[in-house]
Model the fold of this input.
Amino acid sequence: MFMPGAEPFSVCVYCASSSKVDDCFKSAARELGRLLARAGMRVVFGAGKCGLMGELACGASECGGETVGVIPQFMYDEGWGNDALTRLEITSSMHERKERMLSLADAVVALPGGCGTLEELLEAITWKQLGLFDKPIVILNVAGYYDDILRMLSRAVEERFMRDEHCGMWRVAASPEQAVSLVKSIPAWRSDARKIAAI
Done:
């Protein structure tokens, strides 16, 4: 749970780098960045300068927030990195990038995105199920983007690939405001996570 302190509370935000998406997604990303900064939370993200990643970083910076970008070397070499951040970390691989982002996180928020974003979100949920990550995971369901994924997760429970209890591993927000509120209020995941990981 969010506790104001000397060390900034870090929120890892998964989101898209595509610049061709609808403005409603961009607006949500920028507003999320603003709200996290105003709440005194540090934004950790994939370090992209375009699309929702760029909007997120701009929103946080506008409000004096701290931004930490994590990007693999090959992406940085392509010129995809955002150098206008508080801190930019370059990793040797995508695997190292994902592990580093989660290791920095006190909470996760997933904005809409493509395969990379979906993979990151589902990996975070998997880590939580296995007791490797016990922090809040919030799915920011802008314009119903995640409706199908949420149905699929419910189907996994219905078909007994997961337990009913596992539905508590994530929460769904309809707006950036609600996402930040959930990040502040969700308690740590259950200490017996590993005991109920298998079904």
User: Anything to note?
Assistant: The helical segments are 23-38, 51-62, 73-77, 94-104, 115-129, 147-158, 176-185. The longest helix spans residues 23-38. The beta strands are 9-14, 41-45, 67-72, 87-91, 107-110, 137-140, 171-173. Residues 6 and 29 are 26 Å apart (CA to CA).
